[in-house]
């Protein structure tokens, strides 16, 4: 019988078993990739069931290590929504990966798909974790399983990028995140995620909470808050499906999700607002939003530009947490969803352009829109969503975050959001303009792009439009997480 507990276990078991099947079928590419797609479909169906039952908050204890220390899952709406985003986009990204890896004759494809399966299992563990200990374990699984993906090409640049990736992510998690978890256990006698905030309910002083808040903010290195962001642009040496996975499906999204979950269930909005460090951290997040956008303007390489765009856009979530405003935190949760669909569209577009032309720099992409109209149409939709224009999904998080700055009495921080949107225009739309309105450098493409690198970004671009009209159900689904009495209904 399919029970909530079984579904929680299957969220990890399906991708893990998928990885085993991929490894066993490594010499039969069609079967191997079929196993990946079947795993993706089964996981998406399982997560759809969990999304539906999330308000009942079922739990599953995997192992009890000591009193108050358990490896456990607890389903709740925020985690269920992140799991839905990650599982749904993994399926789309798997389709794209087949077209990209074959279209570019990439080596070690079996290892590539196996690591993807392990990584998505790690992302599911983070999403559905019931306490900080469980979240930490799967956070590290995600780091270690994506390292071979970052270093996939095996050249000097890939090895260097991988070293930076591993050093920063392991260094921050072991040096700051783990001590913060140990301190939480000592102060509260538990690391469980609790509505209202574990530390708030245990009367931890604002000063102590403020110190812990700093440790969590920089210890969750996957959130890419400056100055612990350098791993992200250096990881762009990976194949484009990996870049899309890092930015939209799992790694960075797992980082900001962890930040949001810690802020909501370990601190609680009221305690965050009372700490002496929340405002400085909010300013650091706002600075990351603007500075990363300015750096993006200087990058001609499309993937590098998109990498700094992600640092900027995901700092929205950290800003939302540090504002200590339920309305802003709701905006942060929506940003995880809306940004994922738009950013994966942009990265898959970059990979499709490379597959067809071997071009990586924006200055080389003149006139390509005439040869790849559907692809550049999808790119433009994704870019306009990141900017925040209606009727595209990216508008809603910015609106809620703007309202959240007013609710927190930090109106000046809204200027960072405004500046970000203006800078988004400056660094995202020039590619569309070059592609559509400038004469092409060459008469035709080097080779036609495979359908499997064109269709996925078109699908996700359509998703960006659809999500705009689903804001009501999404808002209502998340309201119980962020103190609904404090939510201003007139935002919509």
Automatic annotation (TrEMBL):
<dbReference type="InterPro" id="IPR001750">
    <property type="entry name" value="ND/Mrp_TM"/>
</dbReference>
<feature type="transmembrane region" description="Helical">
    <location>
        <begin position="208"/>
        <end position="232"/>
    </location>
</feature>
<feature type="transmembrane region" description="Helical">
    <location>
        <begin position="449"/>
        <end position="471"/>
    </location>
</feature>
<feature type="transmembrane region" description="Helical">
    <location>
        <begin position="164"/>
        <end position="188"/>
    </location>
</feature>
<feature type="transmembrane region" description="Helical">
    <location>
        <begin position="244"/>
        <end position="268"/>
    </location>
</feature>
<dbReference type="Pfam" id="PF00361">
    <property type="entry name" value="Proton_antipo_M"/>
</dbReference>
<feature type="transmembrane region" description="Helical">
    <location>
        <begin position="6"/>
        <end position="25"/>
    </location>
</feature>
<feature type="transmembrane region" description="Helical">
    <location>
        <begin position="408"/>
        <end position="429"/>
    </location>
</feature>
<keyword id="KW-1133">Transmembrane helix</keyword>
<feature type="domain" description="NADH:quinone oxidoreductase/Mrp antiporter transmembrane">
    <location>
        <begin position="129"/>
        <end position="421"/>
    </location>
</feature>
<protein>
    <submittedName>
        <fullName>Multisubunit sodium/proton antiporter, MrpD subunit</fullName>
    </submittedName>
</protein>
<dbReference type="GO" id="GO:0005886">
    <property type="term" value="C:plasma membrane"/>
</dbReference>
<dbReference type="InterPro" id="IPR050586">
    <property type="entry name" value="CPA3_Na-H_Antiporter_D"/>
</dbReference>
<feature type="transmembrane region" description="Helical">
    <location>
        <begin position="310"/>
        <end position="330"/>
    </location>
</feature>
<comment type="similarity">
    <text>Belongs to the CPA3 antiporters (TC 2.A.63) subunit D family.</text>
</comment>
<keyword id="KW-0472">Membrane</keyword>
<feature type="transmembrane region" description="Helical">
    <location>
        <begin position="374"/>
        <end position="396"/>
    </location>
</feature>
<keyword id="KW-0812">Transmembrane</keyword>
<feature type="transmembrane region" description="Helical">
    <location>
        <begin position="336"/>
        <end position="354"/>
    </location>
</feature>
<feature type="transmembrane region" description="Helical">
    <location>
        <begin position="280"/>
        <end position="298"/>
    </location>
</feature>
<feature type="transmembrane region" description="Helical">
    <location>
        <begin position="112"/>
        <end position="130"/>
    </location>
</feature>
<feature type="transmembrane region" description="Helical">
    <location>
        <begin position="37"/>
        <end position="58"/>
    </location>
</feature>
<keyword id="KW-1003">Cell membrane</keyword>
<feature type="transmembrane region" description="Helical">
    <location>
        <begin position="78"/>
        <end position="100"/>
    </location>
</feature>
